[in-house]
Write a structure and sequence with these properties.
The protein is of the alpha+beta class. The chain has an 8-stranded antiparallel beta sheet with strand order 14-13-10-11-12-15-22-20, with helices on both faces. The longest helix is centred in the middle third of the chain and has 17 residues, at 249-265. The structure holds ligand MV4.
Amino acid sequence: MFNKILIANRGEIACRVIKTAHAMGIRCVAVYSEADANARHVQMADEAYLLGPAPSKASYLRADKILEIALKSGAQAIHPGYGFLSENEDFAKQCADAGVVFIGPPVSAIAAMGSKSAAKAIMQDANVPLVPGYHGDNQDESFLAEQAEQVGYPLLLKAAYGGGGKGMKVVWQQSEFLEQLQSAKREAINGFGNDKILMERYLTKPRHVEIQVFADNFGNAVYLHERDCSIQRRHQKVIEEAPAPNFSNEQRRAMGEAAVTAAKAIGYAGAGTVEFLFDEDGSFYFMEMNTRLQVEHPVTEMITGQDLVKWQLLVASGQPLPLTQAQIPLDGHAIEVRVYAEDPDNNFLPATGKLTYLRQPDANRHVRVDTGVVENDEVSPFYDPMIAKLIVWDESRDRAIARMRRALDDYRIAGVKTNLNFLTRLVEHPAFAAAELDTHFIEHHQATLFAPEQNEPTQALILAALYLLLKRQPAQSVSTPWQSALGWRINESAQVEFSLTQDEVNHRVVITQQANGFVVCVGDLCLQISAQLQLDELSANIGGHQMRVRVNQAKDTVSVFIKQQRFDFEYKTTVEVASTEDAAGSLKAPMNGTVVAVLVKAGQLVEAGQTLLVMEAMKMEYAIKAPTAGTVNAVFYATGDLVKDGVELVDFAAATEA
Ligand code: MV4
């Protein structure tokens, strides 16, 4: 076994590899970019070397530097993780030439899977099932048109050197064939530098089912069952699970054996994944083979009880596979979701920024969190914005789904937008519960997956205001107004106002503290609420509904986490002015500032302490209140007006006592 390896990657996968290597007594060399100097993978490693500036091309893709560091540090092998150099034939070759073990398949196996049509030719010869189609060298238009008639419609045009669904064109009928072919060729030459096209019958509702395979250098190859990765968006996996739901043992064995045949056909060694399209009628077809450890390998680990990184290290160091096919368990059900910094409501735009608040579910036998970040880390624009993988396991799929819902509830992130709420909607979706899976799941359920929530925003607003109130009370309890720092008095109901802005809409929340709780008013809606705050946990009883939510405040932003939704409010400190006896007649601007709200009209009767107008200055808000009961004769300014210190804001007449 190696005693030192280099991990040519970053983020969660680098951490994942280090964890197993350390458990095996292997020392780890990390590499990092300038953006990752303090990253978790650097801290976990035994030593680390700077590669260069943040962009991948200048850092994690610098094969030359990485090899140099491996040699300098005495690492005997390089684990490439996924992405970056993991399927780079040249890099694998350079490693071999330098006498450093590339922890991956032989160069020839990477090469064999580089071209889709070449891969298909190999698989056809090995009798691995392929989607009926044409993947030959003759690219003559009229010849392809003839072949298209054989394949039948709808058919799919794929770039032979493409990937990730790019350059694919569905042709629904003969009349559009030539136009679509030309379009596919243009995209292929622009995208991949080669316009070779292959054609397949188009499956309209397939599932993506892939088989984890492993081979050693003694001719042994096994499958570690399947993963269903049908839930994707734009060819990015979102949820993966193992085993595939509604999959019979016969199907498992047939697909597993086909995958092993595929691996043997290219002289495979190490961890690999054979992807299949699984059609509604139970037939399956080879799509491609990934010659690396995949992102979603943990679901396989959870159902087999195996550590796949350990297997990789064993095989790469020249040892045989630790188990035979018959010894590989299949126990329970595992589900993984990918937690991303992105905005599902804005076309999944990647999000960047600081993870100002990060709470993960507790890891245990049922819950696993693979991550490369800690609180206050930055999600930078340079790399994939995946924050973590959340993996759960239980005896059945239903119970695993329940675990996942709970784990998602316990995941709380502030500072950047995330897909946590979207993931919750996915796993709570009845069609997901019913395992009605296919590659168009998200598209198909668009209306229900993105429907706006109703009730919670007001609830969140109320809770945010209560949090702010309780946070500034030293006793942090329900019924002790005399302890508060606000100068409330016994026998006088104390009232505080909060101004909270959500999505640029300003809301005012008025909280009146009473002996046994609060009356909270938002507009016309007033609710009787009791509440307590302990650190970041706010317990509230709203109309008999007892709830517990987490709240976090980072600078001016208060984030309330309800189920898996995060509600952000921008908060300006409101200071009450002009409210007490001696302040009568002082309805003048207390400083230079801006009028941000006018709450009364000329002629209106008001009560003592009622807010008439709100000003803002230096990021603080000032409520101008009626000193006594009385009448507003005139208001001299409107929202948005700039006012000078000392100008008269409101003409106010105190009520004469009867
Ligand atoms: C297909 C297909 C339907 N019929 N091939 C998409 C990426 C590439 N690896 C293969 N892909 C597909 N090939 C035939 N003959 C549908 C897809 C497909 C897909 C496959 C797996 C997971 C998600 C997908 C989303 C859209 C289309």
